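Researcher: I've been going back and forth with a colleague about how Transcriptional regulatory protein RcsB might be arranged in three dimensions. Neither of us has a model we trust, so I'd like an independent prediction. The organism is Kordia antarctica, in case that matters for your notes. Sequence below.
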Amino acid sequence: MVFKKILVVEDTDSINLGLMSKLNDLGFKTVISSQSCDGALIKIKRAIQDEEPFDLLISDLSFIAATTNPKINTGEELIAEVKRIQSTIKIIAFSVKNQQSVIKQLLEEIKVDGYVCKGLHGLKELHNAILAINKGQIYVCPIAKASLEQKHVFQLDDFEKQLLQLVANGYKQDDIAEYFKSKNISPNSRRSIEDRLSRLRDNFNATTTSQLIYLAQSLDLI
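Model: Here is an independent structure prediction for Transcriptional regulatory protein RcsB. You can compare it with whatever you and your colleague have in mind.
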């Protein structure tokens, strides 16, 4: 399917403008925005009444109240209500939230079609989500996927934090080995560093070290 009418719900001006610009650049002609949940629901209902419903909703989850007594306070509430009145609409949650419980609720209980975390690659991942949903697939961005696959809250020890921080700062493995030796930090052989990075990639389900660093930074682990 090709989305003909998209509603963006985001209360931060700069992000709202960025989303609208990205969607227009991707060729979507009818893209409408709302900066409040109540306003978004009014637009959804009016479009249904006019028999010109939205076929994609992209919504943040956290909102600053624009009025004194909003009827809907969160993106989760909005998404659930929209699903209730228009079950066929496709929905992407676009949020800074990367907690496993939040993502699971939206995917398993509310049944959103995509979950994308805001950040450095947020708009790129949003594009990936739209492409996947167009093909009838559910899309979960790498950060959200890493969160879902953690059986327990993943923690890095001091050595791993320092190792990943050095990699993030551009150090090569030989440089890291020499640095650890100069600081009397063990293990400090190149082989041990390679092995630890390999294990961390497995733990994070990262295919490359660059993706590992991106996930660790996005999850505020380094």
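Researcher: What would you highlight for our discussion?
Model: I'd start with this: Residues 5-148 form a domain with the Rossmann fold fold (CATH 3.40.50.2300). After that, consider the following. The chain has two domains: 5-148, 158-218.
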